[in-house]
Amino acid sequence: SQTIHQWPATLVQPVGSPLSLECTVEGTSNPNLYWYRQAAGRGLQLLFYSVGIGQISSEVPQNLSASRPQDRQFILSSKKLLLSDSGFYLCAFSRDRALSGNTIYFGEGSWLTVV
Amino acid sequence: QKEVEQNSGPLSVPEGAIASLNCTYSDRGSQSFFWYRQYSGKSPELIMSIYSNGDKEDGRFTAQLNKASQYVSLLIRDSQPSDSATYLCAVNRMPRTYKYIFGTGTRLKVLA
Residues of chain A whose pLDDT is less than 50? Predict the structure, then answer.
């Protein structure tokens, strides 16, 4: 079966410090990978998506970057965190199946508090 | 107009009742529709997907899709306190399979 894992689950970081969140998918190959952010009381905001190794698309300009060094690995990074980067970060994957198979599945999420 | 709209709630129903959650969307080209349940502090988990007009049932859950009216709903029969959560509606427009539009969710409270 297909599974997705991300870590760390929670972290508290000072302003100006770097960030690295990791996500891996198991049980499938060549998934589409996503990073979302969910601010308190708000909807899911798509940050990045990737359709293959080294292929990253950014949806919004921001202080973050993403990389996909391996087929099933997706990394979210920042060189210098801002207070506004606090939130709940979700990694997700989907497959480019036929219409009935494009469900998006989420990892466990990472709570980031920038202080 | 938001691309996907949901009433934020809270929607309160007594235990054992039917909970009805609604979602409207603006893009007529949307072809895939999903309902997720999200407990406080946790990630969204898939309840159901629906692609064709009509009803789709899975246990206590029924999803209803009406593309002409651009709405999708989720019915929860025999609601339990454990169903108390936020329910997210999401739509996807083929062939742009990478863009999933999520509503902000409806908070459901099932009262024991």
Answer: none
